[in-house]
Amino acid sequence: MPSKSKIEWTESTWNPVSGCTKISNGCENCYAERMAKRLQAMGTKGYEDGFKVTLHPDSLEKPLKMKKAQMIFVNSMSDIFHKDIPDEYIMRIFDVMNRAHWHTFQVLTKRPERLAQMASTLKWTDNIWMGVTVESNDYIDRVDYLRNLNIKVKFLSVEPLIDSVDKMDYKGIDWVIVGGESGYGCREIKKEWVLEVKDKCEKENIPFFFKQWGGVNKKKNGRLLDGKIYDGIPNE
C-alpha cells in the first residue's frame, strides 16, 4: 500500500519510481536522497542502488487496492518527469491515476519542460493535481510551463524557500504551499519571504498552505505564522 505520510499537505505517498539527480539549488539537501541511502543501508528491496533512478513496476497498481479515498503525493522519492523515466512508464502511472478516480493525486516536478512536452499525450482527469517547485526567483520561469495547461488544479510548492520569490506571477495557479528547509545543513527561511507569498495569495484569492519553518528542529519550530495555522487547500 502507499505509505501514510508525515507531509502536512497530503495523506499518503506512492512511489512507482525512486531516485533522482540534482537540478537546482533547492535540491542541495534533498531529504529523498538521505532517505534512499538510509533504505539502501537497511537492505530495503528496491533501494539496492540507493538514489539512482529506479522503476518499481510492482508498486504501480497499489492505489487501485486502496478503497478508502486518499490524497496521495506521487513520487515523493523521485521526480516523475526525470529524463531517465521512459515516456511509456509515465503513461502507465497516469493510467493508474485515471482509473483510481476516488483518490486525489498530487504530482510535483522541478522539470516542467518535460511536463509541457508530454502534457498533450497524458490524460488529465480531475483527480490529478499538478505542481512545480519554485525555491527562489531564479526558478520562477517553471510556473510559465504550468499555468496554461488544461489541468483542474495547478499548484506551486515554494519549498524549500531559500530566497525571495517576489517576482513570481501567480496567474493561473490554484494553490500555493510554502515551507522552510529542515534537517542538517538546512538554509534559513526569512519571514518576509513567507509574507510576500501569503499576501499575494490573499490578494489573488489563492489557497495558501504554510507547511513549516523547518530548521534543524522542525517540530519545535512548528508552522505558526503570526500565531496562526495556514492550511488552505483547493475545494475538490
Total DSSP helices = 7
Q: In what range is the share of β-strand residues?
A: 15-25%
* Whole-number count of domains: 1
Q: The CATH topology is what? A: TIM Barrel
The Cα radius of gyration reads 17 Å
CATH-derived architecture: Alpha-Beta Barrel
Distance between the termini: 23 Å
What's the story with the biggest beta sheet?
8 strands, mixed
Q: What letter string, H or E per element, gives the SSE order?
A: EEEHEHEHEHEHEEHEHEE
Q: What structural category do the secondary elements indicate?
A: alpha/beta
The average pLDDT score comes to 96
Label the overall shape.
globular
Strand order within the widest beta sheet: 1-2-5-6-7-8-9-10
**Oligomeric organization of the protein chains:** single chain
Number of strands: 12
> At the first level of CATH, what is the class?
Alpha Beta
What are the low-pLDDT stretches, counting only 5+ consecutive residues below 50? Answer: none
Q: Give the helix level as a range of percent.
A: 10-25%
Structure description:
Strands 1-2-5-6-7-8-9-10 form an eight-stranded mixed beta sheet. A two-stranded antiparallel ribbon has the order 3-4. Strands 11-12 form a two-stranded antiparallel ribbon. It has helices at about 30-40, 60-65, 85-100, 110-120, 140-145, 190-205, 220; strands at about 5, 10-15, 15-20, 55, 70-75, 105-110, 130-135, 155-160, 175-180, 210, 225, 230. Strand 9 (about 175-180), helix 6 (about 190-205) and strand 10 (about 210) form a beta-alpha-beta unit. The chain is α/β, with parallel strands linked by helices. It is built from seven helices and twelve strands. It has a single domain (about 5-230), classed as TIM Barrel, CATH 3.20.20. The model has no long low-confidence stretch (mean pLDDT about 95).
